[in-house]
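User: Reviewer 2 asked us to show a designed sequence for the structure in our supplementary figure. I'm pasting the structure tokens here. Could you produce the per-position amino acids so we can include them in the response letter?
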């Protein structure tokens, strides 16, 4: 069996190579920013955050693709009431390209569907994995690629985190969710060269701002103290009845009620992501370009 650590190092190397290859494209703002949404515990809101963050980005004029990286229990298409003909399974089997299975939604975002009922992408061999990362790069005409992962720390989830520019970890204030979120942060710290990626935390389903801050402070402090890892607190999302109502209606809550508490929180989170993009990835030259149209 392939050594997991070596496998992850290889993915990081591929990412770096792609960055160098695309450095001229980056200047044109062409390489997609890959944001992987993950959690330790299941059911904490990853798919809702993925889809609704995508919509918030689309509202800012970005071209966004949401990829459902779950082959066991795919959710993104269900949340959008879509039954795509092709999905990630066909890409892995090399029957379709990533671009071919990408479908546009009525909401101005595109999706790449996962599949239900197949045993994990974890069983990808090295060739398949390489092909997969390449396929992901063919989507580079998107500005943002959001990857919704399955819960937990399977090796495929770690692959998607390693391939990301930003890993967004979702937790709720529940002690079990916090413990599991810490678990995944710890694994990221030991298994992934996370230096050239942003690690971000979102606290979902909170009742008050103070509750969110308490959870975030605890997590970011522990990560800093024990793992020497910088985790940025990106923001929180209120526990909001509109969310489950939207899930039942199979429409994003940003569409059902763009001004509900949860929607406003997600917009705020995307606003912060945008700021961190200028600061961390773009640097000075990107800022000059944004303001003056040249470097
Ligand atoms: N902010 C919120 N307010 C109220 N309910 C929420 C909120 N976020 C999530 N939920 C509830 O939690 C459920 C699970 O959310 P979601 O499917 O996004 O989680 P997930 O992390 O993707 O789950 P899985 O690990 O199974 O993929 C939703 O159907 C909804 O009912
Ligand atoms: Mg999900």
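Assistant: Here is a per-position design you can include in the supplement:
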């Amino acid at each position: 069996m392939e050594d997991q650590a070596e496998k992850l190092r290889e993915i990081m190397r591929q990412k770096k190579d792609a960055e160098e290859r695309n450095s001229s494209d980056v200047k044109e703002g062409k390489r997609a920013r890959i944001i992987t949404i993950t959690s330790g515990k299941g059911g904490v809101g990853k798919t809702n955050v993925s889809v609704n963050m995508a919509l918030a980005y689309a509202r800012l004029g970005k071209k966004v693709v949401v990829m459902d990286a779950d082959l066991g229990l795919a959710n993104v298409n269900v949340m959008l009431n879509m039954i795509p003909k092709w999905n990630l399974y066909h890409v892995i089997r090399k029957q379709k390209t990533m671009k071919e299975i990408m479908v546009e939604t009525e909401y101005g975002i595109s999706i790449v569907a996962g599949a239900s009922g197949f045993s994990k992408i974890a069983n990808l061999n090295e060739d398949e994995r390489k092909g997969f990362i390449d396929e992901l790069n063919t989507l580079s005409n998107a500005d943002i690629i959001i990857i919704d992962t399955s819960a937990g720390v399977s090796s495929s989830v770690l692959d998607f985190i390693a391939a990301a520019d930003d890993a967004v970890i979702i937790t709720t204030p529940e002690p079990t969710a916090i413990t599991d979120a810490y678990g995944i942060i710890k694994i990221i710290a030991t298994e992934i060269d996370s230096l050239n990626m942003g690690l971000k935390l979102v606290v979902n389903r909170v009742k008050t701002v103070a509750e969110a801050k308490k959870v975030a402070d605890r997590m970011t402090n522990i990560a800093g103290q024990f793992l020497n890892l910088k985790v940025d607190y990106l923001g929180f999302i209120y526990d909001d009845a509109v969310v489950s109502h939207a899930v039942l209606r199979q429409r994003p809550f940003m569409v059902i009620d763009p001004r509900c508490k949860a929607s406003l929180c997600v917009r705020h989170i995307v606003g912060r992501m945008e700021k961190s993009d200028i600061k961390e990835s773009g640097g000075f030259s990107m800022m000059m370009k944004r303001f003056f149209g040249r470097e």
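For the response letter, you might also mention the following. Residues 46-47, 75, 148 surround magnesium ion (ligand 2) (CB under 6 Å). Confidence is low (pLDDT under 50) at residues 281-295.
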